């Protein structure tokens, strides 16, 4: 009986810990040199339980890394204009270095208008059009946190992307689309798939690198993973299930992210790292 091959797991929890430790050390240095610590403003509209939990988690992690947070809780009845005013005030406040608008904000809010009220230098969640454009042009700016975390994972596991066929399943503005642009910047040949894609399995079968960013449990079947491919599963579905059928994909991939413990922890780590970087830029603390 031959042993079943299994992929190496990409340990997002361990890498995220190292990224946060680095950010914490830099936050400490900023505090010593500037006399003030980095500050992240979190803005939450309404009291959606999942959003409340996410914000609480982000604030707790910030505190552990030596990042202050300022919580702005707005009632569910807040209008787009009021939210824009609040974000504009934070953008103008020199004591705030990064701004996170927890979304979705509710169907009555024009989220694009709200995001655009965040000053680019404080856009540590990488949600503004200017941040997206800078990332796409390879110019300085903050990247969307989950795609940024995916790229750090690929780098940590020495995945050479040049000339590889990367298939990104999902094209949301915060995840799929920017992930594809970052892969392109590393010279991968990128294919985007989405809900209207014809023959998704056929395209996945051609992929050297698969990034699943859909939100459909086990949509990507293991039998469609090319032997030796790298599989990044950003999906997170009820019951700790990703967008990839892990049990079968793990027998064909070379590297694969577990769910949980893969992409998830990297998102907050990148948020904290970018908040510290924003503070350093705004307070004029260059790297020694
Ligand atoms: P989203 O805005 O709902 O976008 C989903 C994308 O998947 C869309 O582009 C959609 O296509 C595509 N899609 C839907 N059904 C499909 C199908 N059957 N075949 C191919 N493509 C399909 O979701 P998102 O915000 O990008 O999040 C995606 C997943 O990542 C979710 O599970 C979410 O929980 C997870 N996530 C994780 C993190 C993290 O920190 N780990 C962060 C953010 C999101 P259309 O554009 O055609 O509709």
Automatic annotation (TrEMBL):
NADP(+) binds at residues 170-172. It holds the Pfam family THF_DHG_CYH_C. The keyword tRNA-binding does not apply. GO terms for molecular function: methenyltetrahydrofolate cyclohydrolase activity; methylenetetrahydrofolate dehydrogenase (NADP+) activity. One of its GO terms (cellular component) is cytosol. Residues 144-282 form the Tetrahydrofolate dehydrogenase/cyclohydrolase NAD(P)-binding domain. Keywords: Amino-acid biosynthesis, Histidine biosynthesis, Hydrolase, Methionine biosynthesis, Multifunctional enzyme, NADP, One-carbon metabolism, Oxidoreductase, Purine biosynthesis. The keyword Oxidoreductase applies. Pathway: One-carbon metabolism; tetrahydrofolate interconversion. SUPFAM superfamilies: Aminoacid dehydrogenase-like, N-terminal domain, NAD(P)-binding Rossmann-fold domains. Gene3D superfamilies: Leucine Dehydrogenase, chain A, domain 1, NAD(P)-binding Rossmann-like Domain. Residues 10-125 form the Tetrahydrofolate dehydrogenase/cyclohydrolase catalytic domain. It catalyses: (6R)-5,10-methylene-5,6,7,8-tetrahydrofolate + NADP(+) = (6R)-5,10-methenyltetrahydrofolate + NADPH; (6R)-5,10-methenyltetrahydrofolate + H2O = (6R)-10-formyltetrahydrofolate + H(+). Catalyzes the oxidation of 5,10-methylenetetrahydrofolate to 5,10-methenyltetrahydrofolate and then the hydrolysis of 5,10-methenyltetrahydrofolate to 10-formyltetrahydrofolate. Homodimer. This is Bifunctional protein FolD. It comes from Streptomyces hainanensis. The gene is folD.
């Amino acid at each position: 009986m031959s042993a079943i091959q299994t992929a190496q797991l990409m340990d997002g929890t361990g890498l995220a810990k190292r990224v946060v430790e680095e950010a914490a050390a830099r936050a400490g240095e900023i505090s010593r040199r500037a006399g003030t610590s980095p500050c992240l403003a979190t803005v939450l509209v309404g009291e959606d339980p999942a959003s409340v939990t996410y914000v609480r988690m982000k604030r707790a992690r910030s505190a552990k890394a030596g990042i202050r947070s300022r919580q702005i809780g707005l009632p569910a009845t807040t209008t787009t204009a009021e939210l824009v005013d609040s974000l504009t005030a934070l953008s103008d406040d020199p004591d705030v270095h990064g701004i996170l608008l927890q979304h979705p904000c509710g169907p009555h809010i024009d989220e694009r208008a709200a995001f655009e009220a965040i000053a680019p230098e404080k856009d540590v969640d990488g949600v503004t059009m200017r941040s997206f454009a800078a990332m796409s042009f390879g110019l300085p700016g903050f990247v969307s946190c989950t795609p940024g975390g995916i790229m750090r994972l690929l780098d940590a596991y020495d995945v050479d992307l040049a000339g590889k066929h990367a298939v990104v399943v999902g094209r949301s503005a915060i995840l799929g689309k920017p992930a594809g642009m970052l892969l392109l910047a590393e010279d991968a040949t990128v294919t985007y798939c989405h809900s209207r894609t014809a023959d998704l399995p056929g395209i996945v079968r051609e992929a050297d690198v698969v990034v699943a960013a859909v939100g459909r449990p086990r949509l990507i079947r293991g039998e469609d993973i090319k032997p030796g491919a790298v599989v990044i599963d950003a999906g997170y579905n009820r019951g700790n299930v990703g967008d990839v059928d892990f049990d079968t994909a793990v027998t064909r991939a070379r590297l694969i992210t577990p769910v949980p413990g893969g992409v998830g922890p990297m998102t907050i780590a990148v948020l904290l790292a970018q908040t510290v970087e924003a503070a350093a830029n705004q307070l004029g603390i260059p790297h020694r």
